[in-house]
């Protein structure tokens, strides 16, 4: 059962709080994040339903450590606790909440491919960290030799704040090969020279600081 279905049953009174929390944990949600999401649903169900993922952030507690999402999906961080100020910040500043006091939220639509490792920048909170992975998109995923494939790594055109590197690995390659470097384009066409399976990955670069995300999860296409 998906999160949205669980939320509807919980709000409709078809599921108790304890069962709701257990089901969320079964979907891979950390207990603090599940509790925070249940609280948010009760306080503002319309706002809670608008987000694809919810990450609870508590004092000195690591949030959901790993989340894989896709272009256009929004992650909401809910900051809880007593008196401490926290952040969710990755080196590229794609994720950059700024200081948040308890019971504030931060929303970020994930628009770029990459692996974004964020943490609380307060030096006394080293365990408050997590990872968001955003894979590339490919269309089609398979096709005959002679097919042009579209590979995408961003859903925003004309950026100056970020650029992107893309690597590929062909059927006979043992190592990743440079394909596109430092582009501001959001996608490109690829015409495979032979049949086989091709793999692609991308990362984002903050053009001002030079800071890089990690490489995205691998996207594969099959040429027959």
List the helices and strands and how they pair.
Elements: H1 3-11, H2 17-26, H3 31-43, H4 45-49, E1 53-57, E2 66-68, E3 74-79, E4 104-109, E5 114-119, E6 129-134, E7 137-139, E8 142-143, E9 149-152, E10 162-169, E11 177-183, E12 187-190, E13 196-206, E14 219-223
Report on the structure:
By secondary structure, the protein is α+β, with helices and mostly antiparallel strands. The protein has two domains: 3-134, Cupredoxins -  blue copper proteins (Immunoglobulin-like, Sandwich); 137-223, Immunoglobulin-like (Sandwich), CATH 2.60.40.10. The protein is 17% helix and 34% strand. The strands form four sheets. Strands 8-14-13-10-11 form a five-stranded mixed sheet, with no helix packed on it. Strands 1-3-4 form a three-stranded mixed sheet. The chain is globular, with a radius of gyration of 20 Å. It starts with a helix and ends with a strand.
Produce a short descriptive summary.
By secondary structure, the protein is α+β, with helices and mostly antiparallel strands. It has two domains: 3-134, Cupredoxins -  blue copper proteins (Immunoglobulin-like), CATH 2.60.40.420; 137-223, Immunoglobulins (Immunoglobulin-like).
List keywords for this structure.
224 residues; alpha+beta; Immunoglobulin-like; 2 domains; 5-stranded mixed sheet; 3-stranded mixed sheet; globular
Number of helices: 4
Please report which band the strand proportion falls in: under 5%, 5-15%, 15-25%, 25-35%, 35-45% or over 45%.
25-35%
- What is the helix/strand order? HHHHEEEEEEEEEEEEEE
Largest sheet: 5 strands, mixed
- Give the overall shape, derived from the CA principal axes: globular
Output the CATH class name of the largest domain: Mainly Beta
**How many distinct beta strands?**
14
User: What is the average per-residue confidence, as pLDDT, rounded to a whole number?
Assistant: 84
Structural class: alpha+beta
């Amino acid at each position: 059962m998906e999160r949205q279905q669980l939320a509807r049953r919980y709000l409709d009174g078809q599921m108790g709080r304890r069962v709701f929390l257990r089901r969320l944990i079964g979907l891979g949600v950390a207990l603090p994040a599940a509790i925070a999401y249940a609280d948010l649903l009760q306080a503002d169900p319309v706002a809670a339903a608008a987000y694809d993922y919810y990450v609870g952030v508590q004092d000195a507690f690591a949030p959901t450590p790993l989340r894989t999402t896709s272009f256009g999906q929004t992650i909401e961080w809910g900051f809880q606790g007593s008196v401490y100020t926290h952040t969710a910040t990755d080196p590229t500043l794609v994720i950059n909440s700024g200081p948040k006091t308890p019971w504030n939220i931060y929303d970020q639509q994930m628009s770029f491919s990459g692996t974004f490792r964020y943490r609380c920048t307060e030096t006394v909170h080293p365990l408050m960290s997590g990872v968001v992975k955003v894979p590339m998109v490919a269309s089609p995923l398979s096709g005959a030799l002679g097919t042009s494939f579209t590979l995408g790594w961003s859903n925003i055109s004309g950026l100056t704040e970020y650029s992107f590197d893309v690597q590929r690995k062909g059927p006979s390659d043992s190592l990743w090969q440079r394909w596109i470097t430092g582009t501001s384009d959001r996608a490109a066409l690829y015409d495979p020279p032979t049949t086989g399976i091709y793999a692609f990955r991308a990362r984002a670069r903050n053009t001002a600081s030079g800071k890089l995300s990690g490489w995205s999860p691998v996207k594969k296409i099959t040429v027959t």
